[in-house]
């Protein structure tokens, strides 16, 4: 059993899978040492997935913030791995990027004007992971609420950081750092609303 999964004991069951678990907990690990190896691999994999998704970047005219797959990956990592492993994955992603790894959006690194969104992803992955452990990724409506909460946290950190780092007024930061991305975020949420509950249904059939 992993350190994280041991902190929250399963307390209910739905479709053969326990409420209190996240998808990563379904991966077998017969001993504590194997669980640690599994968790380390998941953390590394979550960071790598976020870095790869960040390279899917489309510039937005008039905005320093591109549309990327980064936010979707960060929220998916949080929901799939849980709060602890999700936080570690995004922390590894952020620290490696600060150290010069060119895997922020568009191959960037370092603390630029959009680094606040990455800090927001750290918080969002943690909260989304905690919600997922409470069943927040088991149904379509629950997943929608979980994703909306995560995205709100990303913007709650990213937009003020953008305003402070560039010196632009807060209203302008909202106009260029939030509004252009709402439709794309709705599509990302829709993807998660289909993918996560479906993964749990498949897991329940195999359980």
Give structural notes.
- The protein is mainly alpha-helical and 207 residues long.
- It is 65% helix and 5% strand.
- The strands form two sheets. Strands 1-2 form a two-stranded antiparallel sheet. Strands 3-4 form a two-stranded antiparallel sheet.
- Helix 2 runs antiparallel to helix 3 (70-81), helix 2 (32-54) packs across helix 4 and helix 3 runs parallel beside helix 8.
- The longest helix is centred in the C-terminal third of the chain and has 27 residues, at 140-166.
- It is globular, with a radius of gyration of 17 Å.
- The two termini are 17 Å apart.
Terminus-to-terminus distance: 17 Å
The count of strands amounts to 4
Instruction: Catalogue the unreliable spans.
Output: 5-16
Q: Structural class given helices, strands, pairing?
A: mainly alpha
Shape: globular
Strand count, sense and barrel status of the largest sheet are:
2 strands, antiparallel
Radius of gyration, whole Å = 17 Å
The helix content is: 55-70%
Total number of helical segments? 8
For the residues shown, what is the average pLDDT?
89
| Spatial strand arrangement across the major sheet | 1-2
Percent strand: under 5%
The helix-strand sequence is HEEHEEHHHHHH
List the helices and strands and how they pair.
Layout (H helix, E strand, L loop, with lengths): L2 H5 L4 E3 L2 E3 L12 H23 L2 E2 L8 E2 L1 H12 L1 H16 L16 H19 L6 H27 L3 H8 L4 H25 L1
Helix pairs in contact: 2-3, 2-4, 3-4, 3-5, 3-8, 4-5, 5-6, 6-7, 6-8
Concise structural overview:
With 207 residues, this protein is mostly helical. Helices cover 65% and strands 5% of the residues.
């Amino acid at each position: 059993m992993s350190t994280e999964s041991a902190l929250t004991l399963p307390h209910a069951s739905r479709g053969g899978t326990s409420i209190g678990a996240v998808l990563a907990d379904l991966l077998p690990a017969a001993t504590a040492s194997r669980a640690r190896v599994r968790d380390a691999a998941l953390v590394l994999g979550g960071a790598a997935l976020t870095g790869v998704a960040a390279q899917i970047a489309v510039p937005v005219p008039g905005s320093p913030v591109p549309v990327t797959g980064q936010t979707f990956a960060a929220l998916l990592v949080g929901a799939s791995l849980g709060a602890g492993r999700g936080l570690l994955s995004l922390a590894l992603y952020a620290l490696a990027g600060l150290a010069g790894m060119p895997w922020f959006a568009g191959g960037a690194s370092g603390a630029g004007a959009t680094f606040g969104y990455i800090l927001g992803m750290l918080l969002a992955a943690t909260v989304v992971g905690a919600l997922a452990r409470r069943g927040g990724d088991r149904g379509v409506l629950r997943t929608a609420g979980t994703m909306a909460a995560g995205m709100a946290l990303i913007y709650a950190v990213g937009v003020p950081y953008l305003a402070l780092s560039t010196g632009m007024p807060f209203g302008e930061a909202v106009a260029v750092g939030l509004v252009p991305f709402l439709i794309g975020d709705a599509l990302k949420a829709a993807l998660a609303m289909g993918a996560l509950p479906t993964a749990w249904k498949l897991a329940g059939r195999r359980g």
